[in-house]
Amino acid sequence: MRKEDCFYLGKIVRKHSFKGEVVIKLDTDEPELYQNLESVFVALGNNLVPFFIETISLQKGNQLRIRFEDVENEADADAILGVEVYLPLKFLPKLTGNKFYFHEIIDFDIEDVNLGYIGVITGVNDASAQPLFEVNANGTDVFIPMIDHFIKKVDRENNKIIVETPEGLIDLFLNE
Questions:
Q1: In terms of Cα–Cα distance, which of 79, 84, 86, 87 is closest to 15?
Q2: Same domain, yes or no, for 58 and 114?
Q3: CB of 64 within 8 A of CB of 35?
Q4: 41: pLDDT strictly greater than 80
Q5: Is residue 96 part of a domain?
Q6: Which of 42, 52, 55, 63 could cysteine-pair with 69, CB 3.0–4.6 Å?
């Protein structure tokens, strides 16, 4: 399994017992969706390795307590502490309306209600305080804040996002 075909589920943050149980801190608002997993992919080096689950239980908030097959003691658990855990993209819950996953909108067209076609979304910059659409507008990079009231429609059928940006925002990039 390749990382590109998976999504980040969380990280193994601590051991739970001397019998090899570990706790995964989930990166989700809906941890209950993942309390019946049979397996996960664990990032070991540059590889994603399948780990099969013997027991699993939801802990306080967004944590899963897991006992993996073949992780039988503290030493085995120590070997996987701090590693990232992934699931195939097909396990992501489907989003509707104007909600979307960052990976799903790459290569979508982006249009402004007032300006029309702007360009193609090439990525999402989520390293800043506010995530940004990274847009290629005929060779020029345009960055549009991903603010809910800017996003008017996510049109999955036509691979397009329609936004309404404040006057002058797009011009900052195109009229340099």
A1: 79
A2: no
A3: yes
A4: yes
A5: no
A6: 52
